């Protein structure tokens, strides 16, 4: 929202100078946008950071194994603190201080985790260690749903991801049940229409798919990762054409499809040992994906895709350089080829920019 407001501020000034709008219209537009701003803002960010610090303080207090306090007193203290946080959150929401209310909910979720650890510590509970993280995540997810707290939902997804990674590490195989809570939290983000949460879900799913390639490295895992990226990209592109009302969802899908496809192609080049013809083909495909991301970022105004494309292109060029200089290509030929590619890309971007400027739709 902040980025949009900054861009709109510049556009309004340009439109006013060009005579498209007058000062009264500019003020009215600014007022309307400000009234619809749902950003957390600096106070909210600081409040959430304070909640995180409080949570760490409580968990550290538990971890210190405070033996001098009776068991029931310890449990009662943390339970009272838990409900006090939720009561504070309710009071803050009632007064319209939503950012501080979300911070209090987040602190309550952290105290809930400390409660779980304390009970486990006091009664020497044995079992599957990641299960306690799952219970913590489930409780946090429930709290996020009940009060429609985006920060709590994001924390729940982080905890579920920790649980999934822990289970994966213990079993030495991908933990497929992780996809169930991932889908539930992602649905909650969509229900809330919270774009940062959807991007967090996209990152989590991308990591899960890319990890699959490494667990099945020897039997086509990375090829499946590339295929998964292509399928996600195709579905997202079709959805963008057929259901433009979900534009944010489809554009995000294209972005993460590019990440997944590139990651799979990169692994096929440098984690496996393809022969020279296969390496050349894979390198060309990875460069095409990178340039496609840049093109997509330019035509759609998706800055994330643009920078992902630049990053992917640079990473691929450096990877090719490190593997082929002195064998496939001489240094001078390599840099000359890369230079022509970048020059062609620059010319393409220039033409695209000029065309957009002529239509008055430059991003």
Question: What can you see in these coordinates?
Answer:
By secondary structure, the chain is mostly helical. It has a domain at 1-37. Helices cover 82% and strands 0% of the residues. The protein has 14 helices and no strands. Helix 3 (41-63) runs parallel beside helix 5 (98-122) and helix 5 packs antiparallel against helix 6.
Topology record:
Elements: H1 2-18, H2 23-35, H3 41-63, H4 71-94, H5 98-122, H6 130-147, H7 150-171, H8 179-192, H9 195-215, H10 221-242, H11 247-270, H12 276-300, H13 303-324, H14 331-359
Task: Give a quick rundown of the structure.
This protein is mainly alpha-helical. The chain contains 14 helices and no strands.
Helix content: over 70%
**Biggest beta-sheet profile:** none
Gross morphology is flat
What letter string, H or E per element, gives the SSE order?
HHHHHHHHHHHHHH
Radius of gyration: 25 Å
Query: How much beta, percentage-wise?
Result: under 5%
N→C terminal distance: 16 Å
Low-confidence stretches: none
Average per-residue pLDDT, rounded, comes to 79
Offer a few descriptive terms.
14 helices, single chain, 82% helix, 363 residues, mainly alpha
């Amino acid at each position: 929202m902040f980025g949009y407001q900054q861009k709109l501020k510049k556009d309004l000034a340009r439109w006013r100078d060009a005579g498209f709008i007058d000062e009264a219209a500019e003020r009215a537009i600014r007022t309307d946008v400000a009234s619809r701003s749902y950003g957390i803002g600096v106070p909210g960010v600081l409040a959430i950071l304070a909640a995180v610090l409080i949570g760490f303080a409580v968990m550290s207090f538990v971890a210190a194994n405070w033996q001098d306090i009776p068991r029931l007193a310890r449990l009662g203290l943390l339970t009272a603190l838990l409900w006090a946080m939720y009561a504070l959150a309710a009071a803050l929401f009632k007064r319209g201080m939503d950012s501080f209310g979300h911070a209090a909910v987040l602190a309550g979720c952290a105290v809930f985790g400390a409660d779980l650890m304390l009970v486990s510590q006091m009664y020497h509970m044995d079992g599957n260690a990641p299960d306690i993280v799952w219970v913590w995540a489930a409780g946090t997810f429930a709290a996020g749903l009940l009060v429609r707290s985006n920060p709590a939902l994001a924390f729940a997804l982080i905890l579920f991801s920790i649980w999934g990674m822990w289970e994966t590490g213990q079993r030495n195989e991908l933990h497929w049940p992780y996809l169930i809570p991932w889908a539930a939290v992602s649905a909650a983000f969509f229900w809330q229409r919270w774009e940062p949460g959807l991007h967090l879900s996209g990152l989590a799913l991308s990591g899960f798919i890319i990890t699959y390639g490494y667990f099945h490295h020897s039997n086509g895992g990375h090829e499946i990762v590339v295929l998964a990226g292509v399928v996600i990209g195709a579905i997202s592109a079709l959805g963008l054409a057929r259901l433009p009302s979900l534009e944010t969802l489809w554009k995000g899908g294209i972005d993460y499809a590019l990440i997944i496809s590139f990651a799979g192609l990169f692994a096929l080049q440098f984690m496996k040992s393809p022969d020279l013809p296969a390496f050349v083909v894979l390198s060309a495909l990875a460069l095409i994906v990178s340039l496609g991301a840049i093109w997509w970022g330019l035509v759609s105004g998706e800055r994330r895709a643009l920078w992902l494309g630049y990053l992917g292109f640079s990473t691929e060029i450096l990877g090719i350089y490190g593997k082929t200089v002195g064998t496939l290509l001489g240094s001078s030929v390599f840099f000359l080829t890369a230079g022509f590619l970048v020059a062609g890309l620059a010319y393409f971007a220039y033409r695209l920019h000029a065309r957009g400027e002529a239509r008055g739709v430059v991003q």
